[in-house]
Give the backbone structure.
Amino acid sequence: MTNQQISDFDAAGVPQDAIKRLAELQPGKAGSIFTSDLSVNEFLLVREVGFKPLGLVLGSSIYHVGLQVGRWGKNQELNVLSQAMYHARELAMTRMEAEAALLGADGIVGVRLDIEFKEFGSDLAEFIAIGTAVKADEAATPDGGWRNNKDQPFTSDLSGQDFWTLVQAGYGPLGMVMGSCVYHIAHQRFWQTIGNIGQNVEIPQFTEALYDARELAMSRMQAEAESLEAEGIVGVQLLSLPHRWGGHTTEFFAIGTAVRPLRADHTIAKPQLTLPLTDY
């Protein structure tokens, strides 16, 4: 990378063009307008709960995924690939958070985390994080503010509707937490395959592999939430992503939003059931 290319990015990896764009979105600046990928309903609910959208923020990392070969007949995690998938996502998330910090945001809502494999390299993938940076009204800001214990804007992949419900119930998001595990599932030996033909029978090595891989992903996600001093994780998704590694190697990816109560003495009010009006 040349000196000119290096100068096009700041220390957090945010390109200068992005910095210029974000400068135009600074709150209070004449002619400044916000950008957002929230739906109309999500936008209105986020505003109703006391947050103003500041602008769309994103982070990107094109990553070369290394090579690691698993033993044909053995269940095992592929650590090189697990680390690659985690680190690439972390780079994208960190750059998105850096853009939000430049806007003075309290958090990022509606975050999407995607992977796109590129045609110009079979081992290259772009990891993209994108969401809407928001700032809380003074009246909606709890003691201690909305930033997490690492003094970073919170991140959340909850929908606008779920975000509204969470805050109304007295909880706040701390950050998106995730865990990844790329796992090679052992092949059955020939005589095992033959012996199972026509029978209803559990395949223990497959069961154990998938169980173990999911547990590793879940435990890593939980460890991230513990580092944020969260009370729990909501909206958890546990995904199986085959990518381009073939049928016996897959990534198990766990992701959710770590949350905390906004007040030490908070209680969740009993909801009032309101039936919709219908025409008869």
Summary: The chain has seven helices and eight strands. The beta strands are 51-64, 76-77, 107-117, 124-136, 154-155, 171-184, 232-241, 249-261. The first strand starts at residue 51 and ends at 64. The longest helix spans residues 79-102.
